[in-house]
Amino acid sequence: MMNQKHIDVVGASKTYPNGTIALQPVDLQIGKGEFVSLLGPSGCGKSTLLRIIAGLSTPSTGQVTIPDGDRRAFVFQDATLLPWRTVARNASLICELEGIDKAERAERVTAALKMVGLEGFEKVYPRNLSGGMKMRLSLARALALQPELFLMDEPFSALDEITREVLQDELLRIWQSKGFTSVFVTHNLYEAIYLSNRVVVMSARPGRIERVFDVPFSYPRTPELRLTPEFTALSVEISDCLREGVHA
Amino acid sequence: MTIQIAKPASKAATDASTKAVAGKSKPFLKAALPPAIVLVVFLAAWSIVSSTVYGDRNYLLPRPEQVLQAILDNPDTLWQGIRITFFEATAGFVLAIVVGFAGAIIMSQSKMLERSLYPYAVLLQTVPVVAVAPIIVLWFGYNQSAVIVIAFMIAVFPILNNTLLGLLSTDRNHRDLFRMHHASRTTEFLQLRLPSALPNIFAGLRVSAGLAVVGAIVGEFIIGSGGEEGGLGVKVLFAQSRLATGLLFAEVLAATLLGFIFFLVVTIVGNRLIKHWHESALKDDA
After folding, report:
1. Which of A56, A206, B155, B189 has its C-alpha lying 20 to 30 A from B179's C-alpha?
2. Is residue B266 part of a domain?
3. How many domains does chain B contain in total?
4. Which residues of chain A have a CB within 8 Å of the CB of B179?
5. Chain A contacts of B12, Cβ < 8 Å?
6. What's the pLDDT tens digit per position in A139-172?
């Protein structure tokens, strides 16, 4: 799956001014079009690593290389919508900030809203949307940028189980049709396995990469996958690894 | 997959719109009736107390109908008072908005500026403006500009404080989002910080609107005049000195009305601006 290196993290670490080590130096290569999850307990530095890749945080040491001109979109844990903007205007926000012209923007917004199943809601305000629909809109806003890199920080963690599984399937469908590279932070190991080509298990105090697991299941994946013995076996293996990390 | 999800969602939207339509007419009576009853009871009690307790000394507490008579007898006096006080309060309020906004915007630009200036903004707020008023009169003279400055001084701090608070409480993730996509400071201010501060800004404006009227009347008390020419404050003093209590009450009523109108206008403008999204502006359909 890893044809061509897209994100190259070399010795990146993060130490805060007060001395807290959020992340020990880590190396990680992510291939073009890959779907990689960063999995671990809170405090393992998974969000820190994602923010470094996003350029939202500068590493204390080391560096992250991504190709020049590649667009990065970031999806936060809460939908971070602007409540005074309608659905359509929220979806166009990132494109506006990036200076994409109006006609082009309108086209992209229409396409992105259609992709996440929000067509017909253009004029609705976010407060009239359910939690799942807010997250769909947040995804659409990022998709409208047509990013090469899609970075997500526990985007589904506030949703109920059913909505979450539906959105996981939609995310996979969109990812497969668009082919962007995805980095997905989560503390839910089933979510990590279901979505990813590879699962990067991280552990806390100090934050570091414990082990990287290849996920052998082919795409498109369906909910039945969760019930197979192979899925369970991998879950057990990763779960053990997570627990070792906590005890260490 | 998509169609499955869109169904319950569009139902939610329909629900919201039917509620909005249904919630217009009937509840008005339901909302207006209880306070109307209270008003009638209050006026009756006032009238009874005035005639039984005060009797022939009821110049201390004129009956409601005497106040009404005073209004009907002195429309020009009241109208002049309202006009002058309205002008002074409006001028003071506008000045307070301009200075309060400018101050808050400057202080919100950097932690450094905020740290050096904010303590003084708080300290200045604790200065009893009424006590400073005589100094203002000394500087500006016994005229309308002194009254406007006093109204401004009383009204400016709630605007300054609330605007600053609003500008400084922008959501962190929103800021990250804007910075990640190379938004300029101006864009971030206009598209993010200012709109998200609106609820706080209008909270400040609502308080200040009432205070501006209070400030104008206090200012008029201090500049006085000895005659009847002037705003409601001047007229109240004059009516009191002649024991014209019917008129006095009418003037107080006019001043109250003026403050209320200020408050109402600001509230309506504020609710229009944030009606779609902020809890405080939402009707019961949320």
Report:
1. A206
2. yes
3. 1
4. 56
5. 128, 130
6. 999 999 999 999 999 999 989 999 999 999 999 9
**Helix or strand holding residue A210 (H, E):** strand A208-214
pTM, to two decimals: 0.80
**Residue in B174, B179, B198 closest to A80 by CB:** B174
Q: Establish how many alpha carbons lie within 13 A of residue A17's alpha carbon, considering only the half-sphere containing its beta carbon.
A: 0
Please compute the mean of the pLDDT values over residues B116-129 and round it to a whole number.
80
> Is residue A218 packed enough to be buried (19+ CB in 10 Å), middle (13-18) or exposed (0-12)?
exposed
- Distance from A173 to chain B by nearest Cα, in Å? 10
* Among the listed residues B201, B221, B186, B209, the one whose alpha carbon sits nearest the alpha carbon of residue B265: B209
A42 close to A97: Cβ distance less than 8 angstroms: no
Show residues of chain B in contact with A132, CB under 8 Å.
5
CB pairs under 8 A between A and B: 74
Residues B233-268: tens digit of each pLDDT: 899 998 888 888 889 999 999 999 999 999 999 999
Radius of gyration of chain A (CA): 18
User: Does B140 fall in a domain?
Assistant: yes
Domain that holds residue B212: 71-277
Residue B210 counted as domain residue: yes
